[in-house]
Amino acid sequence: MAEMFYEDDADLSVIQGRKVAIIGYGSQGHAHALNLRDSGVQVVVGLRDGSSSAAKAKAEGLTVLSVADAVKQSDVVMILAPDQVQRGLYESEIQPNLKSGDALFFAHGFNIRFGYITAPEGVDVAMVAPKGPGHLVRREYVDGRGVPVLVAVEVDASGKAWDLAISYAAAIGGLRAGGIKTTFTEETETDLFGEQAVLCGGTSQLVMYGFEVLTEAGYQPEVAYFECLHELKLIVDLMIEGGIAKQRWSISDTAEFGDYVSGPRVIDPHVKENMKTILAEIKDGTFAKHFIDDQDAGAPEFKALRDKGAQHPIEKTGKELRGLMSWIKDTDSDYTEGSA
Ligand code: NAD
Ligand code: MG
Ligand code: MG
Ligand code: MG
Ligand code: MG
Ligand code: MG
């Protein structure tokens, strides 16, 4: 059984007694900075010169500094810049300003696990990784709830890194939902696998194939959109409430029988073999190298794939239909349709 912990297991005063620099003010960055501040923690935000995020952070009353100055003024540094820029940012602005006794925090273990970042001696290295998108980390906190977190300590230089990490986890609201103790290796490998095989890659492709098969057979794209994309949330909500069993309980017997006889034919054992290959390429660093090499070259493959994805016919149909469903509000003010 995993080691789980909740708010009562953490001492909020530990992080309240430190100064935290949040590096980056994107999806996770804004959520951590605002949740920490609202939990009574001293926070500054570190951004590169000319960052478009600076105005948003200042509008919230947060202090915005250069990355170097934010690191100098703080003793806990949470790196929430994109994974692919962390190595360069770390070498030029973070590491030179770290001192013994500081703590270096991550929300994903990528750069430590694959060796792109190594902390200097005397510095704690820990992870507080919310298991949900940053915008929900903020929204849930404001609503008195939280997004569950994975917590790990890679280097315990102070001998107190764990207490610091769970205190931070409590301050962002994560321990309201629950924390699980893990390692950088387990978090990194399972996170990459989950997003590639199931949550993002697998689900996106499944939805697109379903939409393609129906529209290519001559069915209306609007009907295909509702069937293959919109209804997915309703089905997944039932899984969250009561597992796959509750989903099967709620659907018709016809749908349930179709689930049993057709599911394993669509997602056949070959898919499981493909998933094992994906996991192997994550573990041996092939995926990390592929991603970082492309990013270092200016991300030509990444940009081409993003453009191709945006051209899929399901996006056009979806945009029209969502415009007609007034209750589907886009509450994330910095999201524009078509950006990723
Ligand atoms: P993001 O892309 O939303 O935001 C990154 C922010 O970093 C930008 O808004 C900007 O303020 C800053 N930034 C961008 N480029 C920079 C540069 N070159 N130099 C300095 N600062 C720069 O990032 P994110 O999705 O919040 O990811 C941050 C970390 O959190 C990553 O390690 C990621 O794996 C992890 N994580 C993200 C999520 C999520 O919900 N997106 C969930 C769990 C963990
Ligand atoms: Mg994840
Ligand atoms: Mg991830
Ligand atoms: Mg149906
Ligand atoms: Mg039923
Ligand atoms: Mg993105």
From TrEMBL:
Substrate binds at residue 252. Its cofactor is Mg(2+). The keyword Cytoplasm does not apply. Its EC number is 1.1.1.86. GO terms for molecular function: ketol-acid reductoisomerase activity; magnesium ion binding; NADP binding. Residues 183-328 form the KARI C-terminal knotted domain. NADP(+) binds at residues 25-28, 48, 51, 53, 134. Gene3D superfamilies: 6.10.240.10, NAD(P)-binding Rossmann-like Domain (3.40.50.720). Mg(2+) 2 binds at residues 191, 227, 231. InterPro entries: 6-PGluconate_DH-like_C_sf (IPR008927), KARI (IPR013023), KARI_C (IPR000506), KARI_N (IPR013116), KARI_prok (IPR014359), NAD(P)-bd_dom_sf (IPR036291). Pathway: Amino-acid biosynthesis; L-valine biosynthesis; L-valine from pyruvate: step 2/4; Amino-acid biosynthesis; L-isoleucine biosynthesis; L-isoleucine from 2-oxobutanoate: step 2/4. Keywords: Amino-acid biosynthesis, Branched-chain amino acid biosynthesis, Magnesium, Metal-binding, NADP, Oxidoreductase. Binds 2 magnesium ions per subunit. It is an enzyme of class 1 (oxidoreductase). Pfam families: KARI_C (PF01450), KARI_N (PF07991). Residues 2-182 form the KARI N-terminal Rossmann domain. One of its GO terms (biological process) is L-valine biosynthetic process. Involved in the biosynthesis of branched-chain amino acids (BCAA). Catalyzes an alkyl-migration followed by a ketol-acid reduction of (S)-2-acetolactate (S2AL) to yield (R)-2,3-dihydroxy-isovalerate. In the isomerase reaction, S2AL is rearranged via a Mg-dependent methyl migration to produce 3-hydroxy-3-methyl-2-ketobutyrate (HMKB). In the reductase reaction, this 2-ketoacid undergoes a metal-dependent reduction by NADPH to yield (R)-2,3-dihydroxy-isovalerate. This is Ketol-acid reductoisomerase (NADP(+)). It comes from Metallococcus carri.
